């Protein structure tokens, strides 16, 4: 696959030749994955003619912007937040997301003090000198209504009852705003990592108390465990990276989350659907227990695909998934790169994700060709 991808990149560099070979087609231009050569936990939103991307740098909050969803080689970069040392949020800044709520932008992210100290116990069999115990959720607020020119300041820690919390996201519903994040049962129980929901009164304030917090999903299925179907050491079973997805035709509300474990090939996407009226009622959610809805494609060396976010093509007509994956399933977290693919919808309104791969794929509909030699 490496050879193939390299060859395609080379052809793209030649640009003109690739474009000329398909001049009869109206959407002949193609791109290949990855769209960013290194990175994890990508999050993308489209606003005012630009795509804004956040991802895990671990040391700060950096925002990229590009007019092109699948070409970030000329993206601009903005350092939104560089945490001071010695705080509970100084290290391991993970999975930032940039949300536009009530004319301000909120960056919701995970962080911890002192680099996940104590160091990881062997195979994370921790009872209890456990890494990750101090991970918490934090929120930055923009100074104005523009995500790029704004400055960002730390607004608040999100209340997770002084318990493990990672990968938090906002869930918007007619009944209000919610925080959905990866949680443990208790402060010192460690894995499995579940999905929890709490109600918010504003983007930086959790209103629910611990009794009201609800667990929406527990990684009980074989495909949610690592290795697949593992019956012992459930500490390596994870539900994380939750992300709201709305079917624009039917209005169906989903939470697409990542399952299994992010450092290996089994990482994949699972699906919850809100089938009732109240996100705080766990009986109002339906879990797709049958298997991952987006998962490794060994035939194309696309492994560990997960931690997705969703956006649309420049003209708004297509749905796109932006996710990370690895070509080498043995190198762990460092092998992750950022990818994007178009997806559709099944007859029952659920998302219909493609098989993960490297392309070449047609560029997103409405991609601006001007100023890009290879996309005439
Ligand atoms: C830092 O985190 C610890 C453990 O959760 C907590 O006890 C302490 O109050 C926090 N410090 C601040 C300044 O919030
Ligand atoms: C949580 O909030 C509910 C509703 O306000 C209240 O009835 C309950 O006593 C609270 N629980 C705790 C532990 O504070
Ligand atoms: C297309 O790209 C050109 C050159 O970067 C830019 O001037 C123009 O505003 C863009 N048009 C749209 C619709 O994004
Ligand atoms: C370079 C390129 O995109 N070539 C494509 C042109 O269109 C034909 C037919 O659809 C494809 O097979 C090529 O891959």
TrEMBL record:
GO terms for molecular function: hydrolase activity, hydrolyzing O-glycosyl compounds. InterPro entries: Glyco_hydro_43 (IPR006710), Glyco_hydro_beta-prop_sf (IPR023296). Residues 1-19 form the signal peptide. It holds the Pfam family Glyco_hydro_43. The keyword Hydrolase applies. Belongs to the glycosyl hydrolase 43 family. PANTHER family: GLYCOSYL HYDROLASE, HYDROLASE, FAMILY 43, PUTATIVE (AFU_ORTHOLOGUE AFUA_3G01660)-RELATED. This is Arabinanase/levansucrase/invertase. It comes from Salinomyces thailandicus. The lineage of its organism: Eukaryota, Fungi, Dikarya, Ascomycota, Pezizomycotina.
